[in-house]
Recover the amino acids of this structure.
C-alpha cells in the first residue's frame, strides 16, 4: 500500500512539474504530509531526483536545438555543485529549519507568481 501512495505522490509531482510549477514544489509537501517522510529526507530526495530529470530535459532541449552550447557549462556545473551541496545540507539541518525555510520559499514563490501573472494580465488589458 505504501508503494502505491509513493507512486501517486511521484505522479502528482511529475504532473505539476510538467506544467511548469516545479515538481519539488509539490513533491516535498506530498511526501511529508501524506507519506510521513521527514522533511530533510524529502528535500534530499527531491534534489537527488533533480539530477537525472535535468539530464533528460537537457537531452530533449539539445535534440530540439534549444541550447546555446558554448555557454551551457556556466549553468550545468553550478547546478550540479549546488544540488549536491543542497542534498548535504538537507541531510544535516534539523527538519524544523527545513520546514520553515521551505514554507517561506513557497510563500515568496506564490507572491512572485501572483505579481507576475497580475502584471501580465494588466499588460494584456492595455493592449486590447
Amino acid at each position: 500500500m505504501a508503494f502505491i501512495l509513493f507512486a501517486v505522490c511521484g505522479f502528482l509531482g511529475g504532473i505539476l512539474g510538467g506544467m511548469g510549477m516545479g515538481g519539488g514544489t509539490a513533491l516535498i509537501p506530498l511526501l511529508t504530509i501524506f507519506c510521513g517522510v521527514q522533511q530533510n529526507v524529502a528535500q534530499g530526495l527531491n534534489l537527488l531526483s533533480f539530477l537525472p530529470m535535468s539530464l533528460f530535459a537537457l537531452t530533449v532541449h539539445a535534440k530540439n536545438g534549444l541550447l546555446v552550447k558554448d555557454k551551457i557549462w556556466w549553468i550545468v556545473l553550478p547546478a550540479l555543485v549546488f544540488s549536491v551541496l543542497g542534498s548535504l545540507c538537507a541531510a544535516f539541518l534539523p527538519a524544523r529549519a527545513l520546514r520553515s525555510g521551505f514554507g517561506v520559499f513557497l510563500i515568496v514563490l506564490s507572491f512572485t507568481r501572483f505579481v507576475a501573472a497580475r502584471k501580465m494580465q494588466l499588460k494584456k488589458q492595455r493592449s486590447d
User: Anything to note?
Assistant: The chain has a mean pLDDT of 83. The two ends are 53 Å apart (CA to CA).
